[in-house]
Amino acid sequence: MTPILEPGFFSSQPVRTAVVLGAIVALVTAVVGIFTVLRSQAFAGHALTDVATTGGSGAIYLGVSALAGFIGGSVIGAGAMDLVGVQRARSRDVATGIVLGASIGLSALFLYLDTTSTATTGATQQILFGSIFTIDPSIVPVVGALTAVTLFAIAAVHRPLLLSSISTELAAVRGVRTRLVGLAFMLSLAVAVGLSSIAIGSILSTALLIGPPATALRLTRSVASATVLACCLGVGTTWLGILLAYDSADWSSSSQGLPVSFFIVAIAFVLYLASGLGFVRRWVGRGGVAPSHPRGPVAPSNETVGR
Amino acid sequence: MSEPRRDATAATGTTAPAATVLKVEGVTVRFSGRTVLDEVSFEIKEGEFTGLIGSNGVGKTTLLRVILGLQRADAGRVEVLGAPRSPGGRSLGYVPQKVSLDPDVPMRARDLVALGLDAHRLGISRRSRQQRERVAEIIDAVDATGFADRRVGQLSGGEQQRVLIAHALVSRPKLLLLDEPLANLDPRSVQEIVALLHTVSSAFGVAILLSAHEMNALLPVMDRIVYVTGGRAASGTTAEVVRSEVLSALYGHHVDVLHLHGRVLVVAEPGADTDAIPDHPPLNIG
Amino acid sequence: MVNAWEVATIVAIVAGVVGFFVVLRGAAFPAHAIPKGAFAGAAGASLIGASTLVGLGTFALLAALGIGTLGRRGRSDVATALALVMMLALGAAFLSQSTQYEPEIFSLLFGEILGVSSSEILPEAILGLVCVLAVVLLYRRLMLTALVPEVAAAKGIRPHQVEMAFLVVLACATTMTVPVVGALLIFTLMIGPPAAARCFTDRPGVALLLSVAIALVTVWSAIACSFQFNWPVGFFVGSFSAAWYGIGRAFAALQRRRPGAAAAASARAEAVHLGA
User: Fold this and answer.
1) Which residue, A4, B81, B211, C24, has fewest beta-carbon neighbours within 10 Å?
2) Which CATH number goes with the domain that contains A59?
3) Where do the structural domains in chain B lie, given as residue ranges?
4) Chain B: touching chains (3 or more CB pairs < 8 Å)
5) What is the domain range of residue A193?
C-alpha cells in the first residue's frame, strides 16, 4: 500500500517552497477573502487576477521584475475600479467589467509583443495556470513581508470595514470614512491577489480567496471565528492539495500526475458544497446558518446600502 | 387632545432651564432648481420627544441627513450641543428608514449593537467588560435580549428595528434620530415602538426626533412637533402648532383641525391640494 | 477578410442584445465566467480530437448550469467564482495530460477574427439568430424580474427559472462568439457598449438598439485598427469598449448638471417601467 506521505516529500526543495509559500498565500487570501465575500466583491477579486497577470505580461515585456508587475498591475487596476465606482452596489459590476476588459486587451497586446519578440509560446500557458512547484524560492521573503503588511492593514481597519460592509449608512453615521476604508480594502485585495497570482496562479488565487471564506461564513456565528476558520481551511486545503498532487505522479503509469491547482480547487469546491448540505446546516445550529432566500438578478437600484 | 408629557421642571425637580441639544437655524436645501427645505428653524431641548411630521417626499429625510452632517445645506446652520455639525461623534444616534441586513452574514444582534460603540476605532482590541455590560444593558432596555444571539439578518423587521435602536443608543447619544420608524407597521407594533422609545428616552435622558407622516400615534408622548409642508416648517408644542390658523398659514390655503375621540384630523376644503396633507384621504366638506 | 466583417457584425449584434440584459441584471461576472469556463472545455476537446465548438458549447452549458444551481442557495458571485475555478481547474487537468503547448490557446483566449473561414459564417449566423430570438421571447420576463421583482413574483414568474434561462442564453452567445472575439474579450463587448448606451438614454428599446450600434462601431473600428497597426484585435476591442463607457459617463455627468434634470430623471424612471 502506497503511503500517503511518500518518502522524499519533505526533502524535495520545490515541495518545501510550495508548502511554505502556499501557506503564506492561503493565509492572506483567507483573511482578505472574508471581507471580499462580505462586500460581494468576488468578481473584483477574480478580475484582479487577470489584471495582475496583465501587469506580469507587461513586466516580462519590459524586462522588469515579474512580482512588481503583478502587484503593480493589480494595484493600478484596483485603483481604477475604485475610481469608476466599484464601491457602490449598482455600478460595481460594470466598473469591474470595464477595467477588466481594458486590462485583458492590454494583456493581449503585451503577449503579442512578447511572443513576436521572444517566440516563447509557453509564456501564455505559464502565466495563466502557473505552478506552485516551479516558483523561485527567493521571492518567499518578499511575499512574506507583503503578506504581513496586508494583514496589518486589514487588522487596523477591520472594525470600520466590518460595519461599512454591513451597511454604509450606519457606518457613515458613526463617522466612518466609508470611501477611504473601501479604498483601503481594495488596495489590500489588490496586493493579496497580486501575491497569490504570481505564487500559485490565477485559478488558485480566486479559489482560495472565495472558497474557504465563503465556506467559513456559512458555518460560524461571528466574523472573527469565520476568519480563523477560513485560514485553517485555506492552509489545510493547500497543503492537502500539494500532497495529493505530489502523490498523483505515481497513481497511473503515465506518471504525469495531475496539477496541484486541480486538487486544491476540487477540495475547496467540495468543502463549499458540503457546507451547504442540509444536515451540516442543522448541525451548526439555530444561531448559525439558515436557508437564504433565492437569489434573483441584482438589479442596479438607488440604494446605497453597504455591500 | 392629550397634553404633552413632562417638562424639565417636573423631571428634574429644579427650575434649571434644560440644555439645548439641537438647534436648526434657517436651513435651506435646494435640489436641481427645486427648494426642498426653506428656512427651517427649530430647537430641541434635552430629553424632549419631538415628532417631525410631514407627508412623504416633503423633505423629512433630507432634514435628518442635514442634521447628521450627511448632506450639505445651501443655507443655515445646525448646532448640536452648541457645536457645529459634522458626521461622527457620539452625540447623535440614528436609525435609518431601510437597512437591508443580509441573512447570510454571520453577525449576531449583540455584535451589531457593540459596533455602535467602537466601529470608528482602528486596530484590534478585545472589548472591555464594561463595554460588554453596556451592550447587554442597552439590549435589555429595548427588550431584545431574547434574540440578541441570533443572526441579525434573520430577525423580523420589528426585531431588527429594536436592534438598530440599541445600536444607535449604545454610545449614549444626547439625541436619537429615527427616520420613519412607524411606516409599514401595524397599529399594535406602532404603539409598542412608541412606548419603547418613550421609556428609553426617560431612562437614558436622550432626546428623540422621529419623523412620521401620521401624528396621532405620537400625540400621547410628543413634547414638541415640527410640522413640515411645502418646504416650510412650524414648530412648538402640539397645542401651539396643530391649530387651524397656524397650519393654514403653513399650507397656504385654509385647513381645519378637527378633534375626534382623541385623534386629530387635518382637513382641507374641496379642490385644495389634499395630497400635501399628511396621511389624509381626500375628504369632501360641505 | 470579408468574412471577418460579416462574422464581426453578427457577433456585435448578439453581444449588444445579450449584453443589454447582462448589464441590466448585473450579470457581468457570469458573462466573464462562462466563456472562460468554456475555454477550458475547448482545451479538453482539442485533446481528444473533438470539435472545438462542441467542447466550447458543452462546457459553456456546464458552466451556466453550475452557476445557476450553486447560485440558488448561496451568494451568486460566490457561486460564479467557484463554478468558474472548478471548470478552469478541470481545463488545467486536461492540459496537463498532454505535453504539447497549444498555440491555439492564444487565439481561443483573445480571438482570431482574421482567421475565420467562410464555412463558419453560416453556423455563426444561425447560432446568433437563436440567441437573439431567445432574448426576444424572454424580453418581458427578463425586464420584469430585473426591475420590479415583486410584480414578477405576483405574475407567477419564478426568478430562478428566468435566471437559468438567461444563463443558458449567455452560454449560447458565448459559444458562438468565442472563436471570433476570444474567450476573454467577448464579455467586454457585452459590458462596455450596453453600459454606455444606458448613459445616453433611459428608454429600454432605444438603449438596446444603441447598445448594438455601439458594439458594431467598436468591433468594426477594432478590426480596422488591427489591420492597420498589426496589433491584436482584442486590444482595440478592450480599449474602445472602455472608451465608449467613459464617453457615456461623461455625457451622463453633464446631463445631471442641467436644471430640470430631476424632473427628467423621474420621467425616465417612469418610462423604464412602462416601457417594460
Assistant:
1) A4
2) 1.10.3470.10
3) 1-91+173-243, 100-171
4) A, C
5) 13-278
Instruction: Flag whether A160 is in a domain.
Output: yes
Specify the CATH number for B1-91+173-243; select among 3.40.50.970, 2.30.30.90, 3.30.70.3400, 3.40.50.300.
Answer: 3.40.50.300
pTM for this model (two decimals) = 0.86
Task: Kindly state whether residue A297 falls inside one of the protein's structural domains.
Answer: no
Nearest to A220 among B103, B106, B122 (CB): B106
Segment A6-24, tens digit of pLDDT: 556 666 777 888 888 899 9
Task: Give B72-103 pLDDT, tens digit per residue.
Answer: 888 888 888 877 766 666 788 999 988 888 88
Residue A50 lies in a domain: yes
Question: Is A134 inside any structural domain?
Answer: yes
Return the CATH number at C223.
1.10.3470.10
Helix (H) / strand (E) element for A15: namely helix A13-38
Q: Which of C84, C86, C238 sits opposite A101 (nearest CB)?
A: C238
Q: What is the ipTM of this complex?
A: 0.86
C143 and C6 Cβ atoms separated by less than 8 Å: no
Count how many domains chain C has: 1
Q: Which chains touch C (3 or more CB pairs under 8 A)?
A: A, B
Pairwise CB contact (< 8 Å): A173 & B92:
yes
B33 → closest Cβ in C74, C75, C260: C260
Range of the structural domain that residue C227 is part of: 2-275
Number of domains chain A contains: 1
A291 at C interface, C-beta within 8 A: yes
Give, in order, the Cα–Cα distances in Å from A210 to each of A37, B283, C7.
Answer: 7, 58, 37
Between A161-175, C58-72, C87-101, the lowest mean confidence (pLDDT) is in C87-101
Q: Which of A101, A108, A291 sits opposite C110 (nearest CB)?
A: A108
Contact status of A174 with chain B (Cβ, < 8 Å) = yes
Output the nine-digit C-alpha cell for B141.
432596555
Query: Is C92 an interface residue toward B (CB < 8 Å)?
Result: no
Verify whether the Cβ–Cβ distance A288 to B151 is below 8 Å: yes
Chains in contact with chain A (at least 3 beta-carbon pairs closer than 8 A): B, C
